[in-house]
C-alpha cells in the first residue's frame, strides 16, 4: 500500500493505494493519526478483521448497548472487547476485557458459543458491569452503571469473521 501526499502543518493530504486493485481512497486535511487509522482500516478490512471504537454515557443502572454488531447468516464472529468506564466526577472507574464467539446458521438468531469469557474485571463500584450478549441477528456489547452515577464509557472492540 503506497501513501503519497504533502504535509501541511499538522495535517496531511494523501491518496491511499491498495495493491490488490481496489479504488484509491483520497484523504484530505487529516492528521497523521487519522491517515494511519485509514491505512490500518484498509489493512484489516482485507483480512476479515475489524477494529473500532465506541462511546456512550450512562446516568443510571439501566443496561445500555454501546455497540451493535450485525452477525451475517452462516458466519462465526470472534468478538474481543476492552471497555473502560469513568464517573464524570472522577470518583468511580472500571475496566473490563471480554471475549465471545457468536454465530448464526440457517437464518437463525445470533448465538453465543458456550459462554462469554471475562478476562478482566476491575471496578471501584461493584454494581457496574460490561459484557457481550446477543439480540436477534446481532451481538451487542452492553454496559451498566449505577443509580445517580454519570459515567462515560469507551469500548474498543475487534471482530474476526469467518464466513
SSE layout and pairings?
Elements: E1 2-8, E2 11-17, E3 25-31, H1 32-45, E4 49-58, E5 64-70, E6 75-87, E7 93-104, E8 111-112, E9 117-123, E10 129-135, E11 138-144, E12 151-162
Q: Please identify the top-level CATH class of the largest domain.
A: Mainly Beta
The tally of helices reads: 1
CA-CA gap between termini: 26 Å
Please name the CATH topology of the largest domain.
Answer: Immunoglobulin-like
Count of the separate structural domains: 2
The pLDDT mean sits at 81
Proportion of helical residues: under 10%
Q: Biggest β-sheet, characterized?
A: 6 strands, antiparallel
User: What is the architecture of the largest domain at the second tier of CATH?
Assistant: Sandwich
Strand content: over 45%
Radius of gyration: 19 Å
Gross morphology: elongated
The tally of beta strands, per DSSP, is 12
Would you identify the regions where 5 or more consecutive residues have pLDDT less than 50? 1-47
What is the quaternary state of this protein?
single chain
Written as H for each helix and E for each strand, in order along the chain, the element string is EEEHEEEEEEEEE
Structural class: mainly beta
Could you walk me through the main structural features you see in this protein, from its secondary elements to its overall organization?
By secondary structure, this protein is mainly β. The protein folds into two domains: 2-47; 50-162, Immunoglobulin-like, CATH 2.60.40. Helix content is 9%, strand content 60%. The chain contains one helix and twelve strands. It has one helix at residues 32-45; strands at 2-8, 11-17, 25-31, 49-58, 64-70, 75-87, 93-104, 111-112, 117-123, 129-135, 138-144, 151-162. Strands 4, 6, 7, 8, 9 and 12 form a six-stranded antiparallel sheet that branches. Strands 1-2-3 form a three-stranded antiparallel sheet. A three-stranded antiparallel sheet has the order 5-11-10, with no helix packed on it. The longest helix has 14 residues, at 32-45.
Amino acid at each position: 500500500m503506497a501513501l503519497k501526499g504533502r504535509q501541511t502543518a499538522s495535517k496531511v493530504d494523501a491518496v491511499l493505494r491498495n495493491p490488490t486493485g481496489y479504488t484509491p481512497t483520497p484523504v484530505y486535511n487529516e492528521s497523521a493519526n487519522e491517515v494511519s487509522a485509514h491505512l490500518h482500516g484498509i489493512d484489516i478490512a482485507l483480512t476479515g478483521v475489524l477494529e473500532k471504537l465506541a462511546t456512550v454515557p450512562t446516568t443510571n443502572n439501566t443496561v445500555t448497548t454501546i455497540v451493535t454488531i450485525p452477525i451475517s447468516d452462516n458466519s462465526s464472529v470472534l468478538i474481543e472487547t476492552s471497555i473502560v468506564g469513568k464517573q464524570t466526577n472522577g470518583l468511580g472507574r472500571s475496566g473490563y476485557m471480554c471475549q465471545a464467539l457468536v454465530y448464526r446458521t440457517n437464518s437463525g438468531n445470533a448465538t453465543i458459543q458456550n459462554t462469554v469469557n471475562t478476562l478482566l474485571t476491575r471496578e471501584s463500584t461493584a454494581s457496574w458491569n460490561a459484557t457481550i450478549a446477543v439480540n436477534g441477528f446481532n451481538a451487542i456489547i452492553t454496559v451498566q452503571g449505577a443509580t445517580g452515577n454519570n459515567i462515560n464509557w469507551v469500548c474498543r472492540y475487534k471482530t474476526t469473521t469467518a464466513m
